[in-house]
Amino acid sequence: MLLDDEKEINNEQEEVNVPAEETVETPVVVEAPEVVAEAVVETPVAEEAPEVVAEAVVETPVAVEEPAIVAEAAVETTEEEAPEVVAEEEAPAPAAKKEEEPVVEEEEEELVLPEFETVVAGGAHDDFNWLMDKRGAIAYTPADKTALLKQYDETLKSVTENEIIRGRVSAISGGDVVLDINYKSDGLIPLSEFRDTPGLAQGDEVEVYVESQEDSQGQLGLSRRKAKILRAWESIVDSFKNGTIIRGTVISKTKGGLIVDCNGLETFLPGSQIDIKPVIDYDQYVGKMMEFKVVKVNEQIKNAVVSHKALIESDLAEQREQILGSLDKGQVLEGIVKNITDFGAFLDLGGVDGLLYITDISWGRIGHPSELLALNQRINVVVLDFDENKKRISLGLKQLTPHPWEVLSADVVEGSVVKGKIVNIEDYGAFVEIQPGVEGLIHISEITWGNQSINAKEYFKMGQEVEARVVTIDRGDRKMSLSIKQLTADPWSEITDRFPIGGHHTGTVKNITNYGIFVELSEGVGGMVHISDLSWTKRYAHPSEFTKVGSPLEVVVLDIDKDKRQISLGHKQTQENPWDGFEELFPVGSYHEATAMKRDDKGATFQLPHGLEAFAPAKHIRKEDGQPVNTGDVLTVKVIEFNKEDRRILVSHTRYLEDLKYKAESAVRAERSKEEGEQNTAIAEVQKKVEKETLGDLASLAALKESLDR
After folding, report:
1. Are 1 and 60 a contacting pair, CB within 8 Å?
2. Which of 447, 471, 487 is the last residue of a domain?
3. Per residue in 205-221, pLDDT tens?
């Protein structure tokens, strides 16, 4: 505290030093706060203005709690010359010069004069040693004090809040660490913040964060934890901006990646940034110390995303450039399978990746690359193509072996029989793999001798083992056509002998279409039954109403076209044509009881006796009560048309009703006519009787008259 007070006094004294108006013997009046001058002493000064204390009462602040010194005579010394005795004279200050005196700014605190001064040479004799202060300490001049204070200040460090500084451990006491940061006071930090430094000892230097220069208890506030976090964030930002490498420990697994502790700051490591190859098991990395590059930062929440993959890629960049620079088509390289997809496999060629397409893995067909490759498998591949700009390399595996067509056995010629498995099925046929890389096509026309349409996807199955005959082979174009039907003799060569026209046979229904039914008579031979040849009496809307696939069916051969390999069959022809007798049973104008089977806007279909069907147009199906005809109604119909050739019968219920009405009316008319005839006959008889009687009477009168005349 003494040094501080002395420093303050020196500063204030420098402010009140007033330069003389003239260089030699110029009186100066110095006004100091709370100093009453009785006499002004004039002293010549070489360089600096004198300090004047003229029999004044000086009030000293209570900062040092010592009484002020009252001097009877002002003593002035210079820094170089010995002190001179100043005579006691009263010299009033000239009023004219008073306006030219410099203005001394008032200080907020009172001027504190030194507690002691050196003895002026030539002054009054005094036994007191003026070189010592009242406490026995060596007294210094103000200039010495200023120099000492300056030297002392230079030994202290300037501390600013929110900065990181280095401190030395001066002591470890209990749960606290005392740190000396070369400041006016030491700082205390809990020992728990030094868990990362288990061997902490006195004299060690550590970095700390200045939270406050003085807290509520007057202590320096320091933090080791905040210093570590701040340094960690600085290293993370530096890595993000400059690409520097940081180290961290994987502490836990989280959704989508890992949590990494980088010098006390938690960061996120995405699963896709762990390694250049896909990682499935994240647990294997927990607890490991790894190196990273920062790829993303968030200044607001002090969060960062790190990548170990970027570090690996940067390490492999130079090696990748060397590999790309030395690549050449046809070059054979060793690679490691790092990933397998549906379309191929990616191989690590030692810092650069290449793609092995599924079509370049094997000469034969494979469904998935995993059938022949496995992860981390080492294989030799050949460079097919590469693009230095896009860093794309196309690889081949099958190209390391000769093409199978080049080593195909010479025994495989036209007419030879081969075996293989179905590897692909299309609408037009099936591909058979004779050996890996050698395939032949069985066209749908070469499946069977029959000419009916065949669906290859229904006839063959994937992986099915088949035997076929080589029809054509072209080793140059690497094409081969096969046939299954040619393994057997052509049945059409003797078709007329086996299936003569008019012959009755039982076949199997193989296919049903809208217009007819395909029936297989024997292997490779079949014919079609048209829908009109299914029944003599019933009309079908679709052949499926008559039979189903796989059912046996009795047929008659109606016609054979050997060139077109077509046979016309009929089923109704297995029975006699009943229409020859139907003409007598169902003549036009005859009446029959019929059942309504179905109805539409055009009319209704009726079931007649003997299984015959008849059709009634819409205008011929009105009932007597005016209601429409419904399915299942039993009505009497009149045959209005019979066509034997077209096997068509038209009927009418309306005509039947009209006939009934006409007959009734005719009967009424006949009855009326009869009644009128009988009445006329009676009248005639009466008339005859009257006439007869009248004639008799006339004859009598005539006889009487004649008699009278006589």
Report:
1. no
2. 487
3. 787 778 776 666 666 77
Q: Count helices and strands (H / E) in the chain.
A: 8, 30
Domain with 392, as residue range(s), is 327-400
Burial 630-664 (b: 16+ CB within 10 A, else e): eeebebebbbbebeeeebebbbbbbbbbeeeeeee
Q: Alpha-carbon distance 145 to 133, whole Å?
A: 14
- 52 and 113: one domain? yes
pLDDT band at 95 (very low <50, low <70, confident <90, very high): very low
AA letter at 402? P
Same domain, 665 and 556: no
Which candidate, 72, 16, 24, places its Cα nearest to that of 44? Answer: 24
Is residue 261 a part of any domain in this protein? no
CATH number at 467 reads 2.40.50.140
| Element at 438 (helix H, strand E) | strand 438-443
Mention every residue, 6+ apart, whose C-beta is less than 8 A from residue 647. 536, 537, 579
Q: Which amino acid is at 636?
A: T
Which residue type is seen at 494? E
Write out the two tokens for 350: 């030692």
Residue 421, CA atoms < 13 Å, CB-side half-sphere: 10
208-225 residues labelled b (16+ CB within 10 A) or e (exposed): bbbeeeeeeeeebbbbbb
